[in-house]
């Protein structure tokens, strides 16, 4: 059995961060794919690993580490010989960590709103009100989030607010790249900060929000550089994108390609 066991979900943006680090380091790991719509993350066996009832979680030599950004830092510490994603200079390291905090504060929660409204909502609409309330109640971390969405989706005001936060995040990334000289957020080397925000940007691209960086060539070049990393493809295996699962989103994307 490999030393690392990853519990995750193909389309989960938090899981994609961790898969990228594992793949980039060439780490051998056993992958467990949880079906988040069937509630695998809320089963008692899994709650013993991660009491927050979310993915990802990693078990290393029988010991559990949870929360994607913590797992990324942990992996970079325990597998340092296979490519470091953390700058050696303490000031740069601090800079990377403040970017990571910003990413978890602003764009990472914001992308959930369009993701749920555009892709996941129909799943909840098939439930009765009682089933939906019971499901929300069973979620240790996301009860209020789900109740706010309800079975009609987040209201337009909430959607606009999320899109505003995403646009501000893209502008912030553009500033960081300009300051560092790129192509990555902190300069020539890809760091954990890039990997943190990668799934948000890939998701935005997937759901046609790429227009937010249409006039920001530095951000477009950043995304191209991340996609060119050898860890990108194995991380985004088939089934990792929303357009690969939801035909109505795929159709929008095809129209986009057609009009380009
Ligand atoms: N802060 C946590 C958040 C994890 C999280 O929200 N995971 C989502 C998928 S990206 C999840 O498991 N959702 C399941 C649910 O809402 O029931 C992390 O970064 O690991």
Summed up:
The protein is of the alpha+beta class and 260 residues long. It has helices at 13-24, 44-49, 68-78, 90-105, 107-125, 129-137, 143-149, 156-180, 192-206, 217-227, 232-235, 247-259, and strands at 4-8, 29-33, 57-60, 63-66.
Q: Would you kindly provide a written description of the structure presented here, covering whatever features stand out?
A:
This protein has 260 residues and is an alpha+beta fold. It folds into two domains: 4-78, Glutaredoxin, CATH 3.40.30; 90-259, Glutathione S-transferase Yfyf (Class Pi), Chain A, domain 2, CATH 1.20.1050.10. Helix content is 57%, strand content 7%. It has twelve helices and four strands. It has a four-stranded mixed sheet, with helices on one face. β1 (4-8), α1 and β2 form a beta-alpha-beta unit. The longest helix has 25 residues, at 156-180. It is globular and about 55 Å long. The N and C termini lie far apart (47 Å). The model has no long low-confidence stretch (mean pLDDT 96). The structure holds glutathione.
